[in-house]
Amino acid sequence: MEFSPFTTREAMPFDFILLDGTNRFIGSLFVKPSSRPSDILPQLRTLAGFHAHEEIDLFEEVKFAPVLCVKVDIDSTFSSTEIENGDIICYQKIPKSEDTYPYVRLFFEHNRLIVLDFSLEHLQQATDHFSDVWKVGDTEYGCYEWLPNGNLEDCILRTDNSPPLLWYNRAQIIAEVCCMLQFLHSNKPGALVHGDLRPCNILIDANYRSKLCHFGMSDLFLEPGTCPPNMSARLPYMDPEFLTTWELTPLSDVYSLGAIILRRLLTGMPPLSIAKKVAAALKSNSLHLLIEKSAGDWPYTQAEQLALLGLRCVKMSRERRPDLSTKVWKVIEPMIMKPPVASWPCFQEIMNDPQVAADGFTYEAEGIRHWLDEGNNRSPMTNMALPNQDLIPNRALRSWIQEYLQQQKQQQGRLDS
């Protein structure tokens, strides 16, 4: 969430983190150097769900070895307190005890945060003076990242006539989402709950790898007795118990994952009575009639395992849902695709020019172009027909390769010396 972005040529961005046991990233705020922290306290209280007169303290990390964090004077200007462009500011309720704010210090000790510092000149140059032409999009939470294949909803609905999302990509996405949820849930001292897991919040890159966005946002703006925004779009994926208890737990995410598996990745059917329809199909051995045809020839055993897992995840009672790390992952892990050995001339060396083909796999440019020039119209990895012969540079992989080679060169230089 961004507050009053780019309101002045002198605006400086700061990142705000709420220290409440979950250490939630609240968002970035652009403020004038001449303004005071006290000017933004009402907004910070609102986002944290505090009452209008809750007393809060703000802290800045000024040294990292050893950690030194100082309290921010809310009545002094940002410029006079020497808080600079890109700094991280944490805040919390004022403790009732005479403690020296140990929670703040522990946070900085165990959560090393790296922030890129961009000058206003660079920001203006990159955005053509913050022109709306360069704006990717908006949600109720602000802008998020753009990826070549949009989000999972785009891929399923084949927005812009994109190629169908094939079964092995779907299985890989399920596995990746499961891994990401395990990472959030393993946070200490308290598990982080995504709370708004839907296809539109699963972003897909050029290689059909996935990223989660908007985690932890579902309850960020939620006050007791109120509903989150876009309720009708959220409802098919929302934990039923949340609607009565207004409490999110890791098992809330498990329900959402099950709904995505059944409704979007496996069947593509409307949410109404989807669990009953899948259960009936499994009982009558007719699951193949429900499986989304555009996914290709999904191995029946794998599809059956996913259907059974999805049904367990969407149980109405949280107590009956499987644990993500011990039960769900045991089913999903064996489904992760291990690329088969290609039956075409390939390069065993590190890629010089990685290119993504229409099958979603990355190849060395010379090898895949030779494959296509010989008249092959099928994927060398899956043997399925390629929807087109377009190639997209895998810049992320190329950047990683270059960084790796540089590290190897530096390491070799140290050994030689």
UniProtKB/TrEMBL annotation:
EC id: 2.3.2.27
GO biological-process terms attached to the record: protein ubiquitination
Transmembrane segments: none
SUPFAM superfamilies per record: Protein kinase-like (PK-like) (SSF56112), RING/U-box (SSF57850)
Single GO MF descriptor: protein kinase activity
UniProt domain U-box: residue ranges: 337-411
SMART domains from the UniProt entry: S_TKc, Ubox
Pathway(s) served: Protein modification; protein ubiquitination
Organism: Setaria italica (Foxtail millet)
Keyword annotations from UniProtKB, A to Z: Transferase, Ubl conjugation pathway
Gene3D superfamilies linked: Phosphatidylinositol 3-kinase Catalytic Subunit, Chain A, domain 1, Transferase(Phosphotransferase) domain 1, Zinc/RING finger domain, C3HC4 (zinc finger)
InterPro entries named in the record: Kinase-like_dom_sf, Prot_kinase_dom, Tyr_kinase_AS, U-box_ubiquitin_ligases, Ubox_domain, USP7_ICP0-binding_dom, Znf_RING/FYVE/PHD
Protein kinase domain segment(s): 53-336
Protein name stated in the entry: RING-type E3 ubiquitin transferase
Pfam hit, one: Pkinase
Uppermost EC category: transferase
Keyword Membrane: no
CDD domains found in the cross-reference section: RING-Ubox_WDSUB1-like
Catalytic activity entry: S-ubiquitinyl-[E2 ubiquitin-conjugating enzyme]-L-cysteine + [acceptor protein]-L-lysine = [E2 ubiquitin-conjugating enzyme]-L-cysteine + N(6)-ubiquitinyl-[acceptor protein]-L-lysine
